[in-house]
Amino acid sequence: MSTSQTPKPTRRRRLGQYFQNIKDSYTISRRTYPWVGWAMLGSALGAIALSVGLSRLTGLALWYCLFLGVLLALMVCMIILSLTVRRASYSQIEGMPGAAKAVLDQIGRGWYVESEPAAVNPKTQDAVWRVVGRPGIVLIVEGPMGRVQKMAADEHKKVHRILSTVPIHTVHVGTGAEQVRLKDLPGTLRKLPTKPVRLTDSEISQVSKRLSSLSSKGLPIPKGIDPTKMRIDRRAMRGR
Q: Using an 8 Å Cβ cutoff, are 171 and 205 in contact?
C-alpha cells in the first residue's frame, strides 16, 4: 500500500514565490507611498553610478565595480521596501477595529499578547488589549479618548486588584490628540520605563497566567479585523 508524500517545492517554485513576495511588498508600499518606485530606481542608479566612479578613481576593473554596484543597488532597494511596507501596512488598517492586535502580534519576543480583548464594547467596537512585557502590564486601548476612558479605567482597576505590585501602563491607540499612531505602537512599547520594576521571563509567564484567569470566556473580538487572520506578512515586510 503506497503512501502519498508531499512533494518538496522545486527551486523554480521557491524563486517564483520570492519574486511574488517582492511584488506584493511593492504593491502594499505603493498604495501609501506612490514615490517608492522612484526612490528605489533613483537609489539603484545612484549605486551603479557610484560603482563607475569607484572604478575610475581606483583603477579597478569596470565589470567588477559594476557587479558590486548591482549588489549594492539590490540591497538598497530591499531596505527601502522593507522600511516602507511595514508602515504602509499599518496605515492601511489604521482606524479599523482590531488593528492594534494585528500590530501587537508582530512585536516579537519578550512580550505576551492575549489572543482576545480584555474588554470590548459590542456597539462601538472599542476594545482593550492586555500585553505583558519587561515594563509590566500594558493596556492597549482602541477607540476615541472621550469614549474609552471609563472602560480603560475599569480594566486598570480590575488588573490592579489582583496584581497590585506589577506596574500597569495604558496606551491609547488612534489618530487623535494624546493617542499613539498604529505605526508608532511597537516603538512606544519598547520605550516604556522598566524602573523601578523590570519583569523577568519567569515573572512575565506568571503574570500572564494570572491575567488569563481574568479573561471572560466568549468575549467577542471586534469586527472589522480578525487578529487570527489579519496578520501582517513578515516575509512581505522583508521582501522575502
A: no
3-state class (DSSP) for residue 170? strand
HSE of 176, CA atoms in CB hemisphere, 13 A: 11
Indicate whether this model's pTM tops 0.85.
Answer: no
Backbone angles phi, psi at 7, to 5 degrees: -65, 140
**What is the SS3 assignment for 113-151?**
ECCCCCEECCCCCCEEEEEEECCEEEEEEECCHHHHHHH
Neighbours of 121 (CB within 10 A): 18
**Quick one: DSSP state of residue 94?**
T
Q: How far apart are CA 24 and CA 21, in angstroms?
A: 5
pLDDT tens, the chain, 240 aa long: 444 455 556 777 777 777 788 888 888 888 888 999 999 999 999 999 999 998 888 888 889 889 999 999 999 999 999 888 888 888 888 888 888 888 898 887 889 999 889 999 988 889 999 999 999 999 999 999 889 999 999 999 999 998 999 999 999 998 888 899 988 898 999 999 988 888 999 999 999 988 887 764 444 445 544 444 444 444 443 444
